[in-house]
Design brief:
Length: 230
């Protein structure tokens, strides 16, 4: 998608020429992919606010980051949280949640890290539950989302599991890698280990905390230029 979540997680350059060099390096690895009922996804799936905004964004004739941001702000004021039952090998629990995200990769895209510790080669889902919060919490939460620190927020619960069932009162919207779809009241999410082959660059563990912030800054600049036809 436009956020390039999978490429960013794998360290594949967004620049096409630099990305093509990775093809020539021919370094292939086996990565996990996941399913939500019968729908395949590579990065994230989820229910709640992010799925709702994805639907509203898809309905809008305008595209781009500013449109998405506008939708998120306006829909936040109207959104009603739901209660979900979560079932995994560790048991069953009820959660009233703003959103529930299941991450195979670490981010939605555009360096928004909803599951910062996710590893696409561990055979597990990283589940992030964001509980209802006040408007005063939005600023710190946004900073943590873009600096890989969201799992340190006291209003957020995270855990790993090989599979999970998300059960709600009735069928509704969910997103699959950012695309809104209608799904049953029960959603069975599972990880398929090593089922995806990909060409990737050599790992770079020397990235600093400031790099995601710099990347987001330039993404915003590019988005504004596109929206204003500069």
């Amino acid at each position: 998608g436009s956020g390039n979540g999978l490429a960013r997680h794998l360290g594949i350059p967004i620049d096409v020429v630099r990305a093509l060099k990775i093809v020539n390096e021919n370094r292939t690895v086996a990565l996990d992919y996941c399913k939500a009922n019968d729908k395949v996804f590579f990065c994230t799936c989820g229910v709640g606010f992010d799925a709702w905004v994805s639907m509203k964004f898809a309905e809008d004739k305008h595209r781009g980051g500013l449109t998405y941001l506008r939708k998120a702000v306006t829909e936040y004021m109207k959104y009603k949280t739901e209660t979900y039952r979560l079932e995994s090998k560790d048991g069953s629990v009820k959660e009233k949640a703003f959103l529930i995200a299941c991450g195979n990769a670490s981010q939605y895209g555009n360096n928004a890290y909803i599951a910062p510790r996710a590893n696409m080669q561990d055979g597990k889902l990283d589940v992030t539950i964001i509980r209802p919060f006040t408007p005063f919490d939005i600023g710190p939460l946004a900073v943590q989302l873009f600096t890989k620190l969201i799992d340190r927020n006291s209003n957020i619960k995270t855990f790993e599991t090989e599979s999970i069932s998300i059960i709600r009162e009735k069928p509704g919207i969910m997103h699959i890698d950012g695309e809104p779809i209608m799904m049953d009241a029960r959603i069975d999410v599972s990880c398929i280990p090593g089922g995806l082959k990909a060409l990737v660059p050599e790992e770079n563990n020397k990235k600093s905390l400031i790099e995601p912030i710099q990347s987001v800054f330039w993404d915003v600049v590019d988005t504004i230029k596109t929206e204003l036809n500069i």
